[in-house]
């Protein structure tokens, strides 16, 4: 039996895939949800969920906290054959390199990861292979911010140059919002922001397997971004997926070809994700690369005949699948965010819910509460039923007026 340590911001889907592949699974994640335990032999979490309390966040970057957890768990449980990482490391190459020093890291090298997150480089490569690009300016002061805004039409997007998941990404729709943002944002040279025109269209992603020289597409997916029903209207926060993307074969093939070409150009290894927006004219606008296993892993496995961890490891060893995965249905995956500070009841008896927090634990406004998965024969039915479950969850959350923090529980 092979052994693997999976690590990331929310690692339960990755642990599930590894366990279903027949592996011994160690896991280090941020949240410590209850249903992570069933998929692991040993596990450690950055946060310590307790009833009636919101645990303190670590005083160090999340990536560093996760690496420290990996070292701690390896000291306790012994060596593993591989480390596989998911979200949390995209713009932290030094933490990625430290992971590779602890055990063999199945995925991209640090140098390849840096290239994949270099927006100037990836934009140039994406354009070469047929993708359009949003008009974008990098700014680090109120003066350069205003200069960029003057060259664009509202609405615009402002987002950190470094970061993923759409967090801290804002949609500004009026002059008043522009002025408010300029007054409140702390501009700095070390932490520049990107100002872009808003591309209206379908948010899409492509999951690719690469071996450094070749690449194949596993799935083309719809992304749920900035949903007002989840309290994310003025942001571009990642809210889930619908797999597969319901569109023409031509659009799917175009997105897949662009992604495969970029993957080969950058010599990506293992599972990697590519984000696009497809506008009304069916033009694909390239957004970014996620150079590691993506959050779509569970939804892909629920509606197909593949195990993503197995495919990822095989790709890292040079072997790509010859046949396309068979997608049997649609899976709607919706992340439920707290719309107010709230206490979370026992959610384990509601069908379709995963990433289940400890009953009685507390979430701040904007925190993820849990994830809803629903499978159906059509996109509409899958999404409609998922929304029914989301409404049930919101009806059960108990708003609170004050959050009590736990002192001294950082790991």
Distinctive features:
D-amino Acid Aminotransferase, Chain A, domain 1, 411 residues, alpha+beta, four-stranded parallel beta sheet, disordered C terminus, 3 domains, Dna Ligase, domain 1, eight-stranded antiparallel beta sheet, globular, Rossmann fold
Quick recap:
The chain is of the alpha+beta class. The protein has helices spanning 12-20, 62-77, 93-102, 110-116, 119-128, 142-149, 175-184, 249-266, 297-302, 308-316, 379-396; strands spanning 3-8, 24-29, 42-45, 54-55, 82-85, 136-139, 156-160, 170-172, 193-197, 202-211, 215-225, 238-243, 269-278, 284-290, 330-337, 342-343, 353-354, 362-363, 368-376, 398-399, 405-406.
3D architecture notes:
By secondary structure, this protein is an alpha+beta fold. The chain has helices spanning about 10-20, 60-75, 95-100, 110-115, 120-130, 140-150, 175-185, 250-265, 295-300, 310-315, 380-395; strands at about 5-10, 25-30, 40-45, 55, 80-85, 135-140, 155-160, 170, 195, 200-210, 215-225, 240-245, 270-280, 285-290, 330-335, 340-345, 355, 360-365, 370-375, 400, 405. It has 3 domains: about 5-115, Rossmann fold; about 135-195, 2-Layer Sandwich (Dna Ligase, domain 1); about 200-400, D-amino Acid Aminotransferase, Chain A, domain 1. The protein contains 11 helices and 21 strands. A hairpin with a 5-residue loop joins β13 (about 270-280) and β14. α2 packs parallel to α3 and α3 runs antiparallel to α4 (about 110-115). The two termini are about 30 Å apart.
**Strand pairing plus helix content: what structural class?**
alpha+beta
Number of alpha- plus pi-helical segments: 11
pLDDT averaged over residues:
93
- What is the domain total for the residues? 3
Strand percent estimate: 25-35%
Largest sheet descriptor? 8 strands, antiparallel
- Coarse shape: globular
Number of strands: 21
* CATH architecture label name of the largest domain: 2-Layer Sandwich
Q: For the largest sheet, list the strands in their spatial order.
A: 14-13-10-11-12-15-19-17
CATH class of the largest domain: Alpha Beta
Amino- and carboxy-terminal Cα gap: 30 Å
CATH superfamily of the largest domain: ATP-grasp fold, B domain
Low-confidence stretches: 403-411
Kindly identify the CATH topology of the largest domain: D-amino Acid Aminotransferase, Chain A, domain 1
Helix content: 25-40%
Gyration radius (Cα, Å) is 21 Å
Quaternary arrangement of the chains shown? single chain
